[in-house]
Design a protein that fits this description.
The strands form 7 sheets. Strands 1-12-11-13 form a 4-stranded mixed β-sheet, covered by helices on one side. A 3-stranded antiparallel β-sheet has the order 6-5-10, with no helix packed on it. Among the domains are: 163 residues, no CATH class; 179 residues, no CATH class. Helix 1 packs across helix 2, helix 1 crosses helix 5 and helix 5 packs antiparallel against helix 7. It is α+β, with helices and mostly antiparallel strands. A hairpin with a 2-residue loop joins strand 2 and strand 3. The chain is built from 13 helices and 19 strands. The protein starts with a strand and ends in a 26-residue tail after the last helix.
């Protein structure tokens, strides 16, 4: 008796091709704009990917927007609350995380003033083909580009932001992606296949249960050897149609035999090691997804696993700090840069930031500390004093820059540490590599950090005068005098005073320009100032060290 046995080969995975396809005037993401749906499916279908994405979205949005200069620009800040609703901002953050790109609408009033910034789902917005200068002048909107021929789905075009006087424009928040012209890929692009793997493994497991945990069957067809090849092919295709993929777990082999053999269905013995395969693949998929997302700790994104950081408090702090610095903040900055560009175009100058979910805090623990928590009445007085002595530094100041800026100071006093050419000021900054996440900041530190972030600097004399006028003085050790310059925010404080150098601009004859101390100056990095011959003032080492890094963490004990 002869047998004619055929093995039906089930589906092979084919990586999706991302093609920027020009169709008429717009460009699709994939040949039929299907790649957006592919990303959405991977977000919804992969538990690991979905958990990370949702966690990152919440971290990016935090508690919404704040503005460091909201107090000085109260009307503009109030206007922003109507221009950009919280829901629209959250959805913009969602698109940016899921797709790596967002395309909000910028809507103007009849008077050409900014009316609102609205979220528009990225998968519904496509770019126009570039013009001869490589610029995208317009964007197209449709709720379903696959049904573009139906009346309610006919694409409508809007101009790119800043290119027209039309009432609605599209702002494309699109980071550069290597190899792409029109679209940005999500930051976890390399793990999309592993997201799909995780989905398929879950489908396989559940269907294996439904199918009795069988590894498959041998199906013997009576008189099968006499089947016409075309009939075999059709029969095989029909079997494959119903058995292919994770949703049809359990492979089948069909054997075409002679007339003397009845139809038999014989189960394959289950491989005892197969569960180890699934376990390995599940772990591998999760690991690769976490890697693509740069998830420093699984606990931070709501995932329990035996790999990665442990749950110790110190390691969790480090992990959160790394995640914020390397992943979340860069995404926030890209969104903030876009919002600021829109607002500035309409005369709204707000120094925006995302309010973090977990704010920096420090609690005093020693009774004999240099400082303790203040009461509300003192906080109000403290804020007034700090505002009084804070000086405006040049806009756009960065420690590494030597560019020149115009200075407009509210106070322009000289300092004993100044020379004719070089001026020394101090800013209250983060002063340690240790993480302060999860701790509560004192009113003094919160105010001082807000001033620094808004560009404020102090003379040494101003800091000493604040000490003499009682800023934090009531919290000094009994019988002692509190020195803001030496001890900053007191025991366990994570901040310090940072020296900042300003250089006078020169006249044509080479003499320093006239004017107040910081008038006609530009900021210079301290190291660069020293290289240029500046005499850098020498202070007590305590000034430049955060209390948390000192012996006893700043306590007198």
């Amino acid at each position: 008796m002869s047998n004619n046995i055929e093995l039906i080969t089930l589906s092979n995975y084919v990586s999706p091709k991302v093609i920027e396809t020009t169709f008429q005037e717009w460009v699709t993401y994939g040949s039929n704009n299907e790649f957006y749906q592919y990303i959405i499916d991977r977000h919804k279908g992969s538990a690991t990917n979905s958990s990370i994405n949702n966690s990152y979205i919440n971290m990016i949005y935090g508690k919404g927007l704040g503005a460091h200069n909201a107090r000085q620009n109260q009307q503009e800040w109030a206007n922003l609350q109507t221009i950009l609703k919280k829901k629209d901002l959250f959805n913009i953050c969602t698109d940016f995380q899921i797709f790596g790109q967002a395309t909000p609408q910028v809507i103007k009033t009849r008077g050409k003033k900014l009316s609102s910034i609205k979220h528009v789902a990225k998968q519904h917005t496509l770019p126009n083909v570039e013009n001869e200068d490589g610029e995208i002048e317009r964007y197209w909107f449709s709720k379903d580009f696959g049904k573009k021929w139906e009346a309610k789905y006919v694409p409508v075009s809007y101009p790119a932001f800043g290119t027209s006087t039309e009432a609605i424009e599209i702002y494309d928040i699109r980071p550069y992606t290597v190899g792409n012209t029109y679209f940005a890929d999500p930051s976890y692009f390399a793990a999309l296949q592993y997201c799909e793997m995780e989905e398929e493994i879950s489908n396989l497991n559940i269907n294996a249960i439904k199918n009795g945990l069988s590894a498959g069957f041998l199906i013997e067809i009576m008189n099968g050897k006499n089947f016409d090849p075309k009939d075999k092919k059709k029969f095989n295709a029909k079997i494959k149609e119903h058995l292919t993929g994770s949703t049809n777990a359990g492979k089948h082999i069909i054997s075409y035999n002679g007339t003397d053999v009845e139809i038999k269905i014989t189960p394959f013995p289950t491989n005892d090691s197969i569960h180890k395969q699934w376990q390995f693949l599940t772990t591998e998929a999760k690991t690769q997804i976490l890697t693509a997302h740069k998830a420093t700790s699984t606990s931070l994104v709501g995932i329990t696993t035996s790999t990665g950081f442990s749950s110790s408090a110190d390691e969790m702090k480090v992990a959160r700090e790394q995640l914020m610095q390397n992943v979340i903040v860069p995404k926030q900055n890209q969104i903030l840069d876009a919002l600021k560009e829109i607002l500035v175009a309409y005369g709204i100058n707000l120094d925006l930031y995302f309010i973090p979910l977990v704010e920096e805090t420090v609690e005093p623990t020693e009774l004999n500390s240099h400082v303790c928590m203040s009461d509300e009445a003192h906080d109000i007085e403290l804020c007034d004093i700090l505002d009084k002595y804070a000086l405006d530094s040049p806009d756009g100041y960065e420690l590494s820059t030597v560019e020149e800026y115009e200075v407009g100071l509210s106070a322009n006093q000289t300092s004993e540490q100044d020379t004719k050419l070089w001026k020394t000021r101090y800013a209250y900054v983060e002063g340690t590599s240790k993480s302060s996440l999860g701790k509560k900041s004192r009113a003094f530190c919160l105010k001082m950090r807000a001033l620094e972030l808004s560009g404020k600097v102090f003379r040494k004399e101003d800091i000493e005068l604040m000490s003499s006028q009682g800023v934090n003085g009531k919290f000094a050790h009994e019988g002692g005098k509190y020195d803001l310059f030496l001890y900053g925010g007191g025991v366990n404080c994570y901040h310090r005073w940072e020296k900042r150098m300003f250089k006078k601009k020169l006249d044509a004859n080479g003499d320093p320009k006239k004017g107040g101390a910081l008038a006609s100056t530009f900021p210079v990095n301290v190291s660069e100032a020293r290289r240029q011959g500046a005499k850098i003032p020498v202070n007590s080492p305590d000034v430049a060290i955060a209390e948390i890094d000192k012996p006893n963490k700043g306590s007198l004990k």
